[in-house]
């Protein structure tokens, strides 16, 4: 009879990727990514930073209140989801909230850049947010979600190494 063993690094990474208990239909975040992509393209084409400020508010709602409270999520639930077949596929909310927080950070930097006259900073920050939104919309690859999972795995590995000393 063997005693309890610690999980391997691979098992720890899998445990870190376990859902938080709150999940969403993954088609909702992809819809939101398409809307976000359109908004960010409009900002880059027009340079109208108040639209970027509005997008920052959308990101903040998704990050701090949760994706369910984002205006794009409401649009998806009211206008799009009723027209789609139900799905059993679910996605954990925690990585989505982190990704929205990252988007919020880039949007705030972009607004500060545009508003202070550092247009190049505004353009670059907006372009980074656009690249991430487009990757999610077009390919289902959530860059912020992947960063969340990677950071989560690294923190478990670092905690394990720290306790082994």
Explain what you see.
With 165 residues, the protein is mainly α. It contains seven helices and two strands; from the N terminus they run H-E-H-H-H-E-H-H-H. It has helices at 9-16, 27-46, 49-65, 71-80, 93-115, 119-139, 143-164, and strands spanning 23-24, 91-92. The protein is globular. The model is unreliable at 1-18 (pLDDT under 50). It comes from Actinokineospora iranica. InterPro entries: DUF4395. Residues 8-21 have a biased composition (Polar residues).
What would you say about this model in short?
This protein has 165 residues and is mainly α. The chain is built from seven helices and two strands.
Computed Rg: 18 Å
Averaged pLDDT: 88
**What proportion strand?**
under 5%
Order of helices and strands: HEHHHEHHH
Order the strands across the largest sheet as they lie in space.
1-2
Could you estimate the helical fraction of the residues in percent? over 70%
Q: Compute the number of structural domains.
A: 1
- Tell me the total number of β-strands: 2
Sheet/helix structural class: mainly alpha
Morphology: globular
Distance between the termini: 27 Å
Largest sheet: 2 strands, antiparallel
Number of helices: 7
The low-pLDDT segments are 1-18
Biased composition (Polar residues): 8-21
Organism: Actinokineospora iranica
Domain DUF4395: 24-153
Transmembrane segments: 31-64, 98-121, 127-151
Task: Summarize the SSE layout with pairings.
Blueprint: H1 9-16, E1 23-24, H2 27-46, H3 49-65, H4 71-80, E2 91-92, H5 93-115, H6 119-139, H7 143-164
Antiparallel strand pairs: 1-2
Helix pairs in contact: 1-7, 2-3, 2-4, 2-6, 3-5, 5-6, 5-7
């Amino acid at each position: 009879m063997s005693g309890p063993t610690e999980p391997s690094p691979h098992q720890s990474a899998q445990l870190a990727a376990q859902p938080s208990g709150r999940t969403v239909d993954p088609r909702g975040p992809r819809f939101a990514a398409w809307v976000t992509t359109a908004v960010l393209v409009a900002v880059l084409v027009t340079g109208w930073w108040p639209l970027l400020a509005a997008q920052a508010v959308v990101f903040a709602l998704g990050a701090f209140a949760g994706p369910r409270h984002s205006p794009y999520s409401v649009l998806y639930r009211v206008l799009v989801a009723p027209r789609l077949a139900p799905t059993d596929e679910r996605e954990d909310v925690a990585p989505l909230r982190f990704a929205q927080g990252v988007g919020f950070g880039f949007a705030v930097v972009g607004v500060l850049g545009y508003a202070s006259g550092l247009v190049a900073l505004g353009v670059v920050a907006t372009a980074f947010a656009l690249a991430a939104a487009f990757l999610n919309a077009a390919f289902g690859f959530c860059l912020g979600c992947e960063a969340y999972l990677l950071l989560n795995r690294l923190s478990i590995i670092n905690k394990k190494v720290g306790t082994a000393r």
